[in-house]
What does this fold into?
Amino acid sequence: MAVAARTRSTRRRRREDVRAALVRALSDLTRDSSFRDLTIDEIARAAGLSRSAFYFYFEDKHELLMAAASRVADELYREADRWWHGEGAPEVLVREALTGIATVYARHSRLLGVAMEVSTYDDEVRAFWRALVERFIAATEDHLRAEQAAGRAAALAPRGAAESLVWMAERCFYIYLRDGERSVEELVDQLSSTWIAALYPSQRRAGP
It folds into this structure.
């Protein structure tokens, strides 16, 4: 049984390694090529695989794109959690969370930009992208309710405020970070001041 367990573990690691290689290949290729023009052969070759091997792991390049974006989304979620479950002054936590999110986004901006663009014409990717953003909206809504119950956050409608702020950040990241039009620091200054003014106006008034 121990041998069988080790064999299953080795196979599982092998699958994860190959999937990770395909994700890296897609990320690298989309820096210089249009997603529409990318072929399975190109992606597989960049990952050191055959075309037939690609289909063992993913149905098509759209499924690969969603898997790649999901990995980055997990990183973004961990950064956002600095605010949701961190300890300290709320205005500090907002800025720390936005800085972490913007830093990760800037590192993967091309890939995330591709996913967003494909969502405008592919129904499956559109549903995926909406669900990805919804994950952040739902967590933000829950946190706002908790902050309001504790008397810290402004009396805004939690759902509407969460939707507005998260989609605002998503659009700003896409527009300004994808091509390096603004630095992470500049964008965080812009977004954090807006978020804090909307959510924690008393903290803003108490500041310098």
